[in-house]
Amino acid sequence: MKKNYQTKAPAAMIVPDLVAIAMTDLAEELREGLLALAVGTGLQVMGVLLEEALPGFQWVTQVKELSGKAGDRRDETRSRS
Questions:
Q1: What SS3 state is found at 52?
Q2: Whole-prediction pTM value?
Q3: Distances (CA, A) of 75 to 26, 32, 56, 72, 81
Q4: Which of 5, 9, 36, 57 is most buried, by the most CB atoms less than 10 A from its CB?
């Protein structure tokens, strides 16, 4: 094998337009899926870190409770005026 095998440009693949469109759509869906996977993983890691830093903290339930309480306070303030 020659030493310049990696420097050669790859041969262009010619595909019909319909296939190219389908491949583009698939690539977009894969990007969205990878983004969702990365976000989900990040949230799980953040939950574990919070549980270690704050013993007894339950990520999902306490965040929902906090957001619910904030909404209640807003409603009280609005009804007073």
A1: helix
A2: 0.48
A3: 45, 36, 29, 5, 10
A4: 57
